[in-house]
Amino acid sequence: MRLSLSVLAVAAVCVLHGIPRATGEDIGTAERVARVTRAAYLMQGWYDPNKGLWLTAGWWNCANILQVLADLQEACPNCHLTDKVWSTTWDKAQTGNGFKDFKNSYYDDNAWWALAWLKAYDLTNNPRYLNSASLLFDDFVTTGTNATCGGVWWNRPREHNTAIANALFISVAAQLANRKDNKKYYVEWAKKNLEWFQNAPLLRPNGLVQDGVSISKGCAVGGGFYTYNQGVILGALIELNRAAPNDTYLPYAQKIADAAISIMVDKNGILHEQGDNTTTNPSLGYDGPSFKGVFIRNLGRLAKEVKSEKYRVSSTTTRRVSGNQVTKAIAPSASTGPVHETISRVLRSTNLEWTLSSPL
Ligand SMILES: *[C@@H]1O[C@H](CO)[C@@H](O)[C@H](O)[C@H]1NC(C)=O
Ligand SMILES: *[C@@H]1O[C@H](CO)[C@@H](O)[C@H](O)[C@H]1NC(C)=O
Ligand SMILES: *[C@@H]1O[C@H](CO)[C@@H](O)[C@H](O)[C@H]1NC(C)=O
After folding, report:
1. Binding site membership of 277 for ligand 3 (Cβ less than 6 Å)
2. Which sign, positive or negative, has the C-alpha torsion 122, 162, 272, 339?
3. Could you list the residue ranges that cross the membrane (predicted)?
């Protein structure tokens, strides 16, 4: 769900100090681990253990912050930075926020949480996290499929059919296929939705994934080109390729990543959302940071999967998206004034993605 301005707190100045700068210089493993550890502690300074969430970050953004922390834990297994976060968030976030079982009206939000719990399961081996992800997927299948134009719905009132909800559905299905007994069932769902995704066709002639299909316009593809739409499908294809190998999946992912790098990164190496106007759609200024973090996380996975330096953010294409540069790139509406506190918090998690995607 994209945030509306009404749920945001009043702006406050927040100086962006202490953020790891993924500037691409060779800082060495120890220094990199020190930086991500420091940044994680700073992130946790905004953690509200009573709510299990990060102050002022939105519901879906928090699920992504959990994924960042999981990546950090994976990168630094002995740091034990996330030990308490999983159980505290699992206990508190669903009760304190009225979203029992991490379910709300937006299927994409639910799927972000499913992905977060899948990471928690991988790290802890605790079956309750796998079960949470599995229940969220069951709910998606039983209430959110059969959208008018095919694929899955974006929300329970069945208003929109978006690329993001569909890519997340494929990703969760493929991850469950690789972790649950009933592999065939999950693979079938993932393949069915991927087929729809390809035929819609959400991949446009410029090689980028567009935002969705319009029910009122005869299922025509439309909307902006957002970085997270380029990102989630990469992770989905990687995971599906592990569950049910197909020679077309990784080349498909690379085609999208190549297009995103060539079209969405400007000559200064700044990553931009495309086809949106931050004057008419200011809320993107608050979701934009998370969008880019999602893209970078999945691009990093692709770099590892196909063993290509081309997709590493430490390569020249995207390395300048850090520090003040990232502020301008991801929050153009705030680039001339103080950084909005909400942005800076989500921004910090995005910066963590950047650091983690560089080789540790
Ligand atoms: C989708 O259609 C199938 C086949 O008609 C049906 O079994 C299933 O219950 C439907 N699911 C939803 C969410 O409407
Ligand atoms: C591989 O994936 C492509 C694209 O989704 C599909 O058309 C093709 O049938 C798949 N091949 C196999 C052997 O399943
Ligand atoms: C954004 O929309 C506003 C209002 O319609 C318009 O004045 C402005 O020129 C647009 N900006 C860009 C970059 O298209």
Report:
1. yes
2. negative
3. none
